[in-house]
User: Fold this.
Amino acid sequence: MSKQTDLTTLSDSALIALFMRARNGHTAEQRATYALDEIGTLRKLLANDQRDDDRLSRTERTQLQAALELARRYTFETMSSRDVMSSPRDVREYLSLKLSGLEHEVFAAIFLDNRHRVIEYSELFTGTIDSAAVYPREIVKHCLSRNAAAVIFAHNHPSGQSAPSDTDVRLTRKLTDALSLIDVRVLDHLVIGAGCITSLAERGLM
Assistant:
């Protein structure tokens, strides 16, 4: 019996090739390498439309998207099973899976109970390539309807940079002040870039 492959040692193209077949005279790994080179990133490859093309068949893309969704659900389940403040790595992995690589800005939140267990993850506002309008009143209403005791905010930077802007800092402080009036704590605001995450709490910007 052959030894089980250590999947962590495989390249992105080798992992993608596991879901692909030889086609038009090219091996699965050749096709996977071509697809990544053509599109640029794994997320963009998976987000591409559902039609068959030279890169991926509809079935292959669906299988890859299913694998990604399983990863999201596994990470969410792991994160939700305990106090999120004891598992910041799980929180960051989940938010990165959800938000990194998007071509538009999304402002999201993880709502928590008084033991810092997850009530809900919600993508609250969607914007353009470099901004998303955020309305504190709507966030207050969301916290009250979920009976949240704390919240972690997150948004992505489509540019790939995770450095918070002055606007990000001002918004975080505005939200913190608004939510303090209903006894909801803002634990952090994470900015998601390409392969990097910045915590405003760790930087002392809240």
Q: What stands out?
A: The chain has a mean pLDDT of 85.
